[in-house]
Amino acid sequence: MDRTFVIDALPERANRYRDTHAIVVVDVFRATTVIVTALSHGHRIYPVASVDEAAMVARQLKNPILAGEQGGVKPDGFDLNNSPAAVSLLDGSNPIVLLSSAGTQLLAHARGASAIYVACLRNFTATANQIAFADRRVALIGAGTRGEARPEDQMVCAWIGLRLLAHGFRAENEATLEEVAAWDGAGVEMITSSPSAEYLRDSNQTQDIDFVLRHVDDVDAIALYNGQQVSLLSAGDEERAGLSVQAT
Predict the structure, then answer these.
(1) Is the pTM value of this prediction over 0.85?
(2) Which residue from 75, 94, 208, 224 puts its CA 20 to 30 A from 36's CA?
């Protein structure tokens, strides 16, 4: 059977693929990096789409940490911004409820897909390898913001796409092939000139740029979202991962 992938961007675009594709959600600066980092440090994590949903989920958890932003601003009553660097410094293993302007919105739009992967620079190779094992049609979607794709997200989508091509997948359209070709051979430092990185510098949040650049392909695990919670599965645990993907 033919195996294919497509690259797209923006949270609302997930609606196009939810019934036909497994979906990979990418938000390098910063939501999916926060999620993979939180999981690797032993936190359970619950992405949400609104402040009200964050409050509802938090009421069901013991000593939760509220992390996130809306329009770049940490909401009233939240403990942390949408910051992987800050999450990496947390003590203990408190559950985290995460809200963001783009990444968690994309996850919310993807709810109902056969499988929803959470990917960033930290685990893109593990994610590609698992897709090659478990899936037939895949949509790689960068979070994007204000109606535009973000370079760092498209780069990770393209790098996953390159690995899928090596596994025998076929791109579904010419735009996807062009995206893959545009980022083939690119260095990770290119993302430091993206609008997202510029915003982080202007808002004195450069620690998150540094964190992302220091953590590239260092988590050999996949992150799967079941519509409520994201779970981390170590690469190589293929039987368990495959069952989880199909049941999601």
Answers:
(1) yes
(2) 75
